[in-house]
């Protein structure tokens, strides 16, 4: 427990020192909401679907969590290259606790960032249909953040350099975002895309956010929660195995 | 060291017992079938040119690398099987940086103390004492990234001394340190060795340092141990007046290239990555 806490605490300390990065990480979601939210708004309304910004905001929350979490998880590569990882790997503590502390820290940061995005979305006109469900949405946001931080940690434990990071970003993270239904409803998409989206964990995250913030959902909140928790558990096992095998 | 003292050390199992230890990286054999043992309470120096296999050996002893062959007992435990128990036995000062440079000196110390379960009160006192000792107390609230190379090195040493393990590994601890800090560090280690019977295992390029502090030394070259014994014995075996002469006669005069500049490759990669980030 002490180890998990101290690694989590370290992540918090580092977060408070990364001012420019926080701003940069918030700029992207805001840009998406302004450009797409307002840009496609009129077409979306003409298609009879209602307010696009409202539809988009939960997707942007998903995007923010996805990028921040994967990035936090993959900070492991930094720690390996700059040496701090050795300090934790040689310490008399269970490696799984080191990993859990790291991922909880990353997930906390991603959830916090997403909360700021939610507030910014509210400033742009987004309104949850029931404010009482917002805390539940925050809880799901943390689970989604934990899922992707663990995914990032798993990849970082298997990779050893920054080139691999590029591959992950371009061939995994970007497709995961665009195919998740964050930007468009999954209800009437071509079958192929619908199938692909079913294998994308972010689809369930975004769908759960919509269920809790807007009401309607594509998969149903129960399936969303089951998939998110199940995938997180499987990734935890994979990541902790890879992490405990890291050699310095 | 008194005769009866060494006799009692003899009776206990060795602190470190290595037999036929080998580490291969692809075609390269970094450590080639070495065997040695370090007694409890001994100060032992591991000497060798760049790339001889010193750090690789330390990494295998400290559970950070898995050996390709051979066996290790550390504090009567096997690092490949009881890695957590082994980690409870040792402390280590790494050769290359292992600080979190976004954090302050004090935060680095604190996290180390927490990971090694030094009780909070004792932690506070020792952190103050050690940071004063390496002359960083006034800079304790400064982020490590703003430190010079020598200051970082001093902080690494202070951090390594924060808890008192059964055996402490120091991989070229004094590289880049001024003579003052070097002497203070050795005074501290000698005291720890005397008071608590801490076994000290260190590597260095300063032969004079090994001669002065080590009870026994091993010289390793091309992954093999080429000489072992007390400094006097090693000097005598080569008919050399100084340990440096003995070292050179054992390992030759040619200069070794350190295995690729890993750091340079990394820097290039970093640059590429930052460009990518900026572009997104």
Give a verbal description of the structure:
Chain A is an all-alpha fold. Chain A has eleven helices and no strands. In chain A, helix 1 packs across helix 6 (95-123), helix 2 runs antiparallel to helix 4 (52-81) and helix 2 (19-39) crosses helix 6. Chain A is globular and about 60 Å long. The mean pLDDT of chain A is 92. Chain B is an alpha/beta fold and 280 residues long. Chain B has one domain (42-65, 81-273): Rossmann fold (3-Layer(aba) Sandwich). In chain B, the strands form two sheets. Chain B has a six-stranded mixed beta sheet, with helices on both faces. In chain B, strands 2-1-4 form a three-stranded antiparallel beta sheet, covered by helices on one side. In chain B, helix 4 crosses helix 5. The longest helix of chain B has 18 residues, at 179-196. The radius of gyration of chain B is 20 Å and the shape is globular. Mean pLDDT of chain B is 87; it is low at 1-7, 260-264 and 266-280. Classes of the chains: A mainly alpha (248), B alpha/beta (280). The interface between A and B is medium-sized, with 32 and 36 residues.
